[in-house]
Design a protein that fits this description.
The protein is of the alpha/beta class. It contains twelve helices and 19 strands. The two termini are 29 Å apart. The mean pLDDT is 96. Bound molecules: pyridoxal-5'-phosphate.
Length: 387
């Protein structure tokens, strides 16, 4: 019973084989354009740029937003390191913020920080402490749980701060504004991932989505080696080899057709866990914010009163029963290489980290399996908490 694995069916294999046979396999394959159109249609954005990983999408997006060595970028504490590393690639500083009960960045804290810890000078928002320019806020939609950051938009516009949405885990998640909008399409630029463990996969892969034509043009240009004249090899900037290839895109086109069904399956899994843990006082299933529709990508439980070691032992106990689990991300503030960076009011992060684990959420888990997993967890909890 797996957390989340790729599901490749006959149609996916047909789509890949067709591409292999017609040799449209490189980054200039027409599949890539087709996949980009399908992604922008699904997310309702003007543009999508298909890339080789979600990490390159984040790197490129930050680069396009002008992040450099004099910049700072706000990030949530509880996320995969791929959210923060591209900030360091560009020589900028991250500032690490706390997360709420849905494991998403605390938007009120971000607003308070901007109001109390920064000043506007020559149209730039300067961090009073470091004198660096606060250029971007990264909002990550953790575990596919959509983070409604709409109240942040006004102050960011006034202060010339960009909002980048890390929607790597959130393909198929939406936030209700005037109407429902896809995660990644609400800020200035959004990033998706199609890695093997995601709700749909292209093997490895990612995308930038945006409504900004300039960002789109620049992303396409930089992702394709900043090529101005392909025949004469003229490049007027330092580009990257970041585009998706045609085989991955073929898989993506085929996988995207199944997204709706996959979300329905995962919703049923979530609801069954919810029902199973409903009456258990100290085991909490991660929920999601109101006015959001989510993709139910990953289920997370927290076991109140268990300590770090006991939670670890639960994982080992479940592993013996062939049930895969994983701790939630080790928070950025606890990673040694990030210790030197500024943090803001990290009150809850470590608490979530101590006793939360991800539990099997894969498409193929049966109701019977979910009940089995839930019962093992309940039994373990009872024994440990009574000792
Ligand atoms: C929140 C988050 N950001 C970024 C990434 C990076 O995506 P990729 O693995 O496609 O590089 C991932 C996933 O792996 C992720 O979970």
């Amino acid at each position: 019973m797996k957390l989340s694995v790729p599901h490749i069916d006959k149609k996916d294999i047909y789509s890949i084989n067709k591409t292999l046979k017609n040799q449209y396999i490189s980054t200039s394959s027409k599949n890539v354009k087709i996949f980009e159109n399908k992604i922008s249609n699904y997310c309702n954005t003007k543009f999508a740029i298909a890339l080789n990983t979600g990490t390159s999408a984040l790197h490129l997006a930050l680069k396009i937003l002008g992040v450099d060595k004099d910049s700072e970028v706000i990030v949530p504490s509880l996320t995969f390191v791929a959210t923060v590393n591209p900030i360091l690639y560009l020589g900028a500083n991250p500032i690490i913020f706390d997360v709420d009960e849905n494991h998403n960045i605390k938007i009120d804290d971000v607003i308070n920080f901007i109001k109390s810890e920064t000043i506007l000078k020559k149209k730039k928002t300067l961090n009073k402490k470091t004198k660096k320019i606060l250029k971007v806020i990264i909002v990550a939609h953790m575990w596919g749980r959509a983070c409604d950051f709409s109240k942040l938009k006004k102050i960011c516009k006034k202060r010339n701060i960009y909002i980048l949405e890390d929607a790597a885990e959130a393909l198929g998640s939406f936030i209700k504004l005037k109407k429902y909008k896809h995660c990644g399409s609400i800020g200035d630029i959004g990033c998706l991932s199609f890695n093997g463990n995601k709700i749909i996969t292209t093997g490895s892969g990612g995308a930038i989505i945006t409504n900004n034509k300039k960002f789109h043009m620049r992303a396409q240009y930089l992702a394709n080696q900043a090529k101005d004249d392909g025949y004469n090899y003229i490049h007027n900037d330092c580009g990257y080899n970041y585009k998706m290839n045609g085989i991955s895109a073929a898989l993506g086109i085929s996988q995207l057709k199944k997204l709706k069904k996959k979300i329905e399956k995962r919703k049923r899994i979530y609801q069954r866990y919810l029902n199973n843990f409903k009456k258990v006082k100290n085991i909490k299933l991660l929920k999601f914010a109101k006015d959001t529709k989510i993709n139910y990508w990953m289920n997370v439980i927290s076991l109140k009163k268990l300590n770090f070691k006991q939670t670890q032992q639960l994982s080992l106990y479940l592993a013996k029963k062939k049930i895969e689990t994983r701790r939630v991300w080790r928070p950025l503030n606890l990673q040694n290489y990030l210790k030197k960076y500024q943090k803001f009011k990290l009150l809850d992060t470590n608490k979530f980290y101590l006793n939360s684990i991800c539990i099997p959420s894969d498409d193929n888990i049966s109701g019977y399996d979910i009940d089995k997993i839930s019962n093992y967890i309940k039994k373990y909890y009872e024994v440990v908490s009574n000792n």
